[in-house]
Design a protein that fits this description.
It is built from two helices and no strands. The radius of gyration is 28 Å and the shape is elongated. By secondary structure, the protein is mostly helical.
Length: 88
């Protein structure tokens, strides 16, 4: 009878260890997914910033391109606001 209790407590400990390991993996996966998403966002922001800097540098030599890009940016904002207004 005593052997059975010892065996059942060992099985319970194994189950607890398994659950704890599973929780650690889930937590790690969540952190990795968050960091990956954050890195992608930072990359996009950097790419946009560098594109804008290139455009501004080009604008010094070809101002019409800078004016056109600014106009396109403003039109995009207006369109985004319009779409947002229709969602309400």
């Amino acid at each position: 009878m005593m052997k059975f209790k010892k065996s059942s407590s060992s099985l319970a400990q194994i189950d607890l260890d398994k659950q704890e390991c599973s929780n650690v993996w889930k937590s790690t996966i969540k952190k990795v997914l968050y960091l990956t998403k954050n890195m992608k966002q930072q990359k996009q922001l950097s790419l946009r910033r560098f594109a804008r800097q290139r455009l501004e540098t080009r604008g010094k030599y070809a101002p019409e391109k800078l004016v056109r890009a600014n106009l396109n940016d403003e039109l995009a904002v207006i369109e985004e606001l319009r779409q947002g207004a229709y969602r309400w």
